[in-house]
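Minutes, project check-in

Agenda point 3 was the complex the collaborators sent over. CS summarized: two entities, 221 residues total, and the question is how they sit relative to each other. Sequences were read into the notes so everyone works from the same version.
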Amino acid sequence: NAGVTQTPKFRILKIGQSMTLQCTQDMNHNYMYWYRQDPGMGLKLIYYSVGAGITDKGEVPNGYNVSRSTTEDFPLRLELAAPSQTSVYFCASSLSDTQYFGPGTRLTVL
Amino acid sequence: QKEVEQDPGPLSVPEGAIVSLNCTYSNSAFQYFMWYRQYSRKGPELLMYTYSSGNKEDGRFTAQVDKSSKYISLFIRDSQPSDSATYLCAMSESGNTPLVFGKGTRLSVIA
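CS then shared the predicted structure for the full assembly.
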């Protein structure tokens, strides 16, 4: 099993550009999550999903969108990139109480 | 008051020392308590998991939860340079509700 995979690993965007961060898990987990991690600030929840077709906002959803059309995939969309979205983004999945994290996407918006 | 408070450090200890990492929280509904370890430029990985109050031991690691004081701890015995990482506490109200993370404590174990 590959676990949770994320692409790309790194990306530089210009202000106003859009992009999709991809997340895939092969563990058949129902629950999936997107977090952002800023230096010294821990992990903040952006969006989460309890199953295909169901998504919900987390603590910091503004400027982001998600979809969950399959159990395996949970893409995160940035429509109009802003410098405040410069961060490291982690996707996670869980079956019950243990969350498994991907390796992260390091995003810089200039 | 933030929901979960964790001293960000950095904490630097000599090899072989006993390390104590702590978090306090304000939400009395939290029932699930976890410690994640995060190496530089990697994703967090689950280190210890405790449900409700009590202690749990796994090798050199011991997790303690005191719900009456809203205080959790992670102890590392005989610390090794390979323990150098950021340690994040996390907690939730039920098994699949989103986790609330502390800011993380950066630990360096010096050989």
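Noted in discussion: The interface with chain B takes residues 4, 31, 33, 35, 40-45, 48, 50, 58, 90, 92, 94, 96-104 of chain A (CB under 8 Å).
Follow-up: revisit at the next meeting once the mutant set is ready.
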